[in-house]
Amino acid sequence: MVCKMIITDCHSQFGYYPISFSYPKKATLHKKKNLVSIIKPGTPYSFSSEDEYLAEYKNSYYGETFKKAGWDCFRHIEIMASGSIPLMADIRQVPKYTMALYPKNLMREAFINFHKNNEAPSEEVQKSFIEYFNQNLTSQAMVRYIFNMAKVNPNKVLFIDQSLPQTEDYLSILTLIGLKQVLGKNCFELFHTPYIYNSYIGETSTLYGRGFGYAKKIDMSEKSITSNLDGIDLIVLGSLARNLHLVEELEKTNIPLVYLYGEDLSPKMRNEEGIIHNSRATTFVREIY
User: Fold this and answer.
1) Residue 255: how many CB atoms within 10 A of its CB?
2) Contact predicate 82/27, CB 8 Å
3) DSSP one-letter code for 213
4) Cα-based distances in Å from 211 to 38, 115, 169, 202, 216
5) What global pTM score does this model have?
6) Which of 20, 35, 143, 173 is a plausible cystine mate for 178, CB 3.0–4.6 Å?
7) How confident is the model at residue 40 (pLDDT cuts 50, 70, 90)?
8) Could you tell me the residue ranges of all domains in the chain?
9) Closest CA to 287 of 174, 209, 167, 171
10) What is the largest CA-CA distance in the chain?
11) Residue 3's CB: how many other CB atoms inside 10 A?
């Protein structure tokens, strides 16, 4: 389980909560053929099909990964979503409050045991990763975590991210998907993000990461767009850093606010921490150090 003390300590020290990327589907246990996946971090995608890409991880006990632009890397999530175990060489260097929702202790033990024994993990260890992932790192689980930390139980949510239709952002996208999975049409978009819906006719290969993990994940029947605040009992800003121009107006409403900060650098390093501290919103930050 996630260490609640780490989460509350983080909020006490910084004024915001940790958050991480997530995945729209639960993980399941699969039979394996390979010890370590052939997919190598840092090399270009050699897969044009998301199913084939994930199948490679599903067929392997382990998948190699490490810090990318930020410590919280979508590759970690893809590996665990496939029912495999991330081999993260720099896991011991991850800052205390970054990736706080990950099974960092399990990841450390897995890395040590692999290099000591060079053998497949036990089924018990595999199940431990899968159980943890399903409870904490699915998109639905992440949305429920947000609601819990923000102390809200909303019926209707307005999701706002003006940049998202043109500029893909994992944290914002996956949270929107999770909100749609939890609330359906009661999650309204102010700015429509077409590529998350199964009716999208654009070329997904042109999306960031070829759209793997987020493109066409929501049925078009769940689409709902509004600019009317009537009945809205929570506003979620998908990316604070990319929508700073909207903050002043949002703060004037009497509706509870949630801000997400998914940048690769901490808000302190980007000189945006003051905006968070002066806000009435419950804010969640991906990279904290």
Assistant:
1) 13
2) yes
3) T
4) 21, 33, 11, 11, 8
5) 0.95
6) 143
7) confident
8) 26-137, 140-285
9) 171
10) 60
11) 12
